[in-house]
Model the fold of this input.
Amino acid sequence: MKEIKTTTNKRHSAFFEPLIIFICALIVITVCSKCSVLYPLNDWDDANCFFTVGKAMMNGKVLYRDIFEQKGPVLYMLHGIAWEISHNTFIGIYLLEIICCFVFLYFSHRTMKLFSDKRIIAVVPLSAFVYTSLAFCSGDSAEELCLPMLAYVFYTAMERIKSGGKLKLTQMLFCGICTGIMLWIKFTVLGFIIGFAAAFVILYIRQKEYLHILKCSIAMIAGIIIASIPVIAYFIRTDSFSYLWDVYFYDNMFLYSGGIELPPVIKQAANLLWGLLSFAMYNTFGLLMLAAAFYRVIKKESKTLIFVFSAIVISGFFFSFIGGRAYAYYSLSMSVFAPVGAVQIYDIVKNKLNISNSKKRYFAAVCVLSLLVTVFMCRNTYTLFTDKDDMPQFRFNNIISQKNNAKLLNYGFLDGGFYTVSETIPECRFFCGLNIELPELKETQDEYINSGRADFVVTKDKKLRSENYRLADSCKFRYWSENSIYYLYERKN
Done:
């Protein structure tokens, strides 16, 4: 009877736990992401940049050559697919976010179960705090889309150490696929993979497992190649490999870095300190969970696990922030370590309150509290159910749409969603302002305006000085914590 009951519990768990994880993913993304159906528009500039480039690619523009943005090609390919689902909304990205969130929480939950016998109850508050952090921004960051791959790699590392077994070749193949996808989304997140790979290479060298290192390397490289096939095929077909190198690699490594001018060692230390402050400011929960995770592994785990865990953390943090910039979303990827910290915090709370996982009332209480956290801590809810007519993107589109095949320029600031709502495809390679020091960008936009090639020009908090255009409309609207004034200019006949 006991064996039958155990089998029944396993079957129940195999169905119940993924279902709860999916419900968590659906709720937190629907409430927290501006891509969801509850919001009129995701007006975050980064999300709109990605969507505009993806749309342009689907309409024959060659990435980097014809339309300039500095993230990876897979990111834009995904947004191009999303554009095929809906031409002027983020519904496609909303669905992608739910999938990514589910996979991230699924492997986070499996990681939790490596460190304790906790059930699904622990993943519910985790989902609430990760996706309500300031690092989540408005949804649809590159880091968010990388979370499921990072969660799988981290789980693989912890599972192999906890089980005492070697890395399996199938695991390394999938880790390679994850690495390849992230390489072509945003290569700075590969710091986590570098730490993972370096730690296991060192372990296997100490164990004189040289042949296994070779096998794992081949499997991982094979995975990277598999994930890279669509990218390679695209740039072969468009004969644009030189633009891939110039924009995605060179510009990001040498033009996108920030920080003040200091001697190299001091500057790198300052960059990492600024990164730590940014981490604390924008992903406070993630930092607390990381501290709790370190406490747990140091107190309760083997030296091998401590070494691998530390290598992944340090390398991931280093490559995320060494460039000198520390935008809010950079620290979201550090949430991958939160499951271990969450187990430690949950153990403390459970012991203090004498909570049992089997008691449904505690599970219900955690779910309710997590839902309240999701609703009241998310900073994006200020635009929930906003009337479209109050937003400049929709208001300006009432004018832009009156002209067939209108040519639009988002001038001097990051993509504000005007291309998205108006369904226009940029003619200008530099279709908006970007966070990169590139004189050619402003020169090209200025020439585009001076020659009168744009039918409409949108500016933000700055009036356009050009005899070719007249002010058609203006609109004041809140963008996160600031109120901005948007101006729409129409070309004079």
Summary: The chain has two domains: 19-42+90-383, 388-491. The longest strand covers residues 469-479. The first helix runs from residue 2 to 32.
